[in-house]
Structures
1.
Amino acid sequence: MADRVFIGRRRLIGATVAAGILALAACSSSKGGGGSTSSGSKTSPSVTLSEMDYYGTEPTKSALGTMLDSCASQVGVTIKRQVVQDLRTRLLQLVGAHSLPDLVLVDNPDLDQIAATGALVDLSAKGLSTDGFYPNVIAASTYQGKVYGLASGVNDLALYYHKKQFTAAGLQPPKTWSELKADAAKLSSGTKHFGLGMALPATEEGSFQFEALFFSGGADLKTLNSPQAVSALQLVSDMLKAGSMPKDVLTWNQANVEEQFANGTLAMMVNGPWQLPLLKKAGTDFGVVTMPVPDSGGTSSSPLGGEVWAAAQGSKSDKAVDVIKCMTAAGNAVTWSKMVNYVPANQSAAAELPASVPEMKTFVDEIAGAKGRTVDLGPDYPKYSEALWTAVQAALSGRSSPQAALDAAQKQAVS
Amino acid sequence: MSRAIASLPAQGWVGKDARRRRVRRPARAAAVPLAFLLPVLVFAVLFFVYPLAKNVQVSLQDYNLSSLYTGAAPYVGLRNYTHLWHDPVFRTAVGNTIEFTLLSIFFQLTIGLGLAVFFVRNFPLNALLRSLLLVPWLLPLVVSGTVFRWMLDTNNGIVNRILLDLHLVGTPVPWLTGYHTAMAGVLICNIWIGIPFNMVILYGGLQTIPAELYEASALDGAGGLRQFWSITLPMLRPVLTVVSTLGLIYTLKVFDVIWVLTKGGPANATQNLTTYGYQLSFGGLSRFGAGAAVGNVLIVVSLVLSLIYLRSRRSEGEGR
């Protein structure tokens, strides 16, 4: 009988060990993905930098790997890359464990929050020059006067439209909100065709998309219930009520909107330049114009999108900064931007882009007026953003009027 | 019940074994049960007690982003909890959780019971159909959720297409996009997912009801409905208690279904305690203290329900 006891115990231990190994394997396999390494310069003993990003789909996944490899060999380091889908949460965990990767490519509105923890390196103090970059791009990566991130390329939102549907209806792409409303109404019919689509889910994506109208209307994030903000939400709410925009926008993400535009359900959509290759592949005959502005006038604007490079505090941060310098240099910025359909963060590089990629022209034109989401609010942005998307959803799901929804949002944001 | 029978010889074996060993080596006999317990204890402390204690600790702190890096988070007493109490979104989430849980359980139980009673009869393809009905339980929740998201799509969804074609509704129902209808949308999906579990357990319970009871009552002239109310339901009561309590505990903490379908929207119409806790901690706000507090509220509620469950199991055991 005693034997039996010990067999049982051994089994238990075995099971525990096996479970542990499985857990470890699960961890390491989730980390893996885009393993790309390169040998450093031949002479010096190679320094290995760890890197994380969320570019997990082809072709950008390998494109980024190739660029990192070439910069790594220029700087003389080896880069160990990890692709992490839920990057923000992962980085916060790693901040807690004091083991951030040396290099991260992080979504720009998340940068301030990570910088606020004190885990990132001030790039300006490391001698990284920001000359030639768009000032608004630098502002979006600045926290308390220090530059914590630098972008290769950035993006913004604009208005896509179906050329054929517009010519058939004898319409010109809209420049003002009342034109947008009228055109959208004309191009809608029943539950099969809608004038306009955008993504307004209960996430940051919803705030990002709504902000294209919000900023173009002259509103600012510090006052969510300003008259300009209310009129932007009123516009969207009116179009939804009139049947010019499907109710499903409340659950769609930007990829869903692109699908609905590509299959002809939507005559217009608000979306970013990264959708261009998909639309071209689908053979869609489309045009892109800057975001319409209120009838009283204004400047087309958009929230600034895209990822920025940041380096973690630590002994290898100098090398990491060198890699960032290489990745954001004008030449690489153009290569990268062409690959992912972004606008180079470097002004002169951006100015040259439309010559070789004409469909990027609208996005380049609009980028100087794009607003960084964290510029006014810093690490508090997520609080305001959540209040904003909740207000948009409240107005569009028939819960409250745009004014009441935004009043509640402002109250929630400052509480 | 087969469970009771199976446990008898096992008890006998342990008892005999312990007695024999006690005669020979008393010290070792004391160590052996401990050795048995040790892995479980280590496991429980490492993976349950520590995280729970940590969660309670964090809920009493102003634990935010910079706390993550510096490790410094000032203790604020019960402030996270009092904030929640005054937080309108939390109140909405509590109301939604109650509504979601009660309605899910009610429909899962009644439909599950109906199917169980149906499958007790003998008919061709019975076993095949019964296993097919298990599919919802086997599918990953994210898959079911995504499929339902498209089926319940207001303009392209098949559900609205059918309703419109049958002229049951005049305009598409905004299943996931209307403030007052979104709860119904997520409920439909969750009920569908939960039916097989209820059906299987209740079906098992029905098998244990002696056929003689039905024969005797039939001789006394009882019809089908009368048999259901006077025999099936009372005999099934212990199983029903178990199923509904387990269902309560499962449904209280549903996250995946809601997250995939609506992300708690529109405008918090389907926000429950789990999605709100997640939102507070990881949804961009990084209010880890408040998120932990929501988690603890949920744990306390589940704990109370688990105790009720354990009690009902014990009284069920005594009843035999």
2.
Amino acid sequence: MRNIYYLKAVSESLLNEMKINPDVVIIGEDIRYSLRGITKGFIDIFGPDRIIDTPISEAGLTGVGTGAAISGLRPVLEFQICEFIFFAFDQLVDQAQKLRYMSGGKLKNPVTYLVASSGAKGGMAGQHSDNPYPYLLHSGMKTVMPSTPYDAKGLLVSAIRDDDPVAVFLPVNLLGTKGDVPEEQYYIPIGKGEIKKEGDDITVVATGHLVKTALEAAKELEVKGISVEVYDPRTLLPLDRELLFKSVKKTGRLIIFDDSNRTCGFAAEVSAIIAEECFENLKSPISRITRADVPVPFSAQMESFVLPDKEKLLRAILKNFKNKGD
Amino acid sequence: MSEKITKELALELYRKMVLCRKFEEKVVELVNKNEIYGTTHEYIGEEAVAAGVCSALRNDDLLASTHRGHGHIISKGGDVRYMFAELLGRIDGYNKGKGGSMHIADVGIGVLGANGIVGAGVPIAVGAALAIKIKKLDKAVISFFGDGASNQGVVHEAMNMAAVWNLPIIFVCENNQYAVSTSVKYSLKIENISERSKAYGFEGKTIDGMDVLEVYNNSKEIVDKVRYTSKPFLLECKTYRYSGHFTAEKILNLNYRTEDEINYYKSICPILTFAARAIEDGICTKKELDDIDNSIINQIDEAVDFARKSKSPEPSDALNDMYATEYVGIPQKGWV
């Protein structure tokens, strides 16, 4: 198996889907020259009819994606900057995500939103560092956030082949990481999480680039005799509840490690689900390691202060065991 | 009637306009009796636009509609039985009672959807036109929008994209002169919204939207041209709505329009003026038009009867139709 970059895995997956299905087109800003590198060279293979650069019109291009999808295409929309979804909010949550339901199932809207660099990369400040997926989860939009190149390639296939809008968040901190990826096209089903590391003492639900961080923390804690299980939901909606319940029932302890805002965020939802469904299995209170509810500040010192990181996770895990009553 | 039209076309235009009018009059009655839940936005007064534009279309052409969409759907060939069933929230409605007045959609009759958000359907229509171009289909798209929507950002974005991609779309601005209570005299610094087409690099034209023949003749020429050249067009139809923005508006007593103004536009009613001209020019007889009136009254009564007999959905149907590709666990219901 080859060891390739996350970005390359995404690009390869998209290229294959475009070769397989002539209805797949890409719509976005700067995709012909490919600022992000995902669609580099695609224009030479597929031409301007399928690699469609748009003017700076994020709301408009999102509506165009919907219109094209309900008229028989299978568009992939690239949002260069994750905050662009705010511009397109009506078109995402009030149009694309609702049209099928409001039409009583008559319309089909198979569109994929590729949020090509989500999260804080360092020094990008308040409007280029968000992880805005909770807004979309709230609207019921299917959302995936692959944490490895292997998952990225496979989940993108499922997103494109799905007959509904699917948001694919690619964490900016993972684009330049490497992993083993098969050459052939394969898919990872939407709604299937994965235990990235088995453990007995505590479950850490980690998302996106924090999966890697959680695995590092788990390794450090092994020498202290704490066995951490790392659960990667991979799909944020629909969440693989069964796998999560199984893990929490085994360990009896839960920390959610997620790089989006705290209030009404993904971690809040997971906490609520476990409190409702597995309360009697818990040996200690659930805790959340998330971002602070402020915009990401520019200065490096303040930036790292507000973001979730390994130290914050380690502290939370150790505190959990200090408080243990068993 | 200076332009020569066939009797067949005259009767077709008349039939569509009367069907729109009678449909809406019945809707108002049913809203006032609380038989229709919520409220609707009636098309009364604007019938010449939908009838004229849609009669210039082929069956497989597409349109995106607005919150004031009943006339568009009827004129595009929508079945008033399924429309009434939808408005009564029944399972035989176009959208099984999930959409109601503002969200009727059926690609089968070329309706991409009405829309509850002003201007939001315009980029969706552009997307449909993009799909047509990429798939090399011989279809045209109509994007209806109003004077109010003309000031929304996405409408500007959508027109610009249609221009740079050379798409087969006609933006039909139904300028009924008021965005709810706000007059175009307040919200626009230009006389004609069609002037904006120049800024995007395509043609535009303003016409009398109270004259169905003028709307039809212009639409025919423009649709053929757009289909052939694959270049967008902005057609502004100046028109007027006789009733309020929505059914119950009159109880609010907003008084943003004078009685004189409303009465003037009623005096140039598109249906009555067209009927008078058609009879005067000997294109058809009064009896032929009366027969159409009577058949439409029957059609409406039968449609309402059909809708009333249609079953109500099961409450739990509310959890269906959310996703085309279904997964366990979604959608979540809000209780245990």
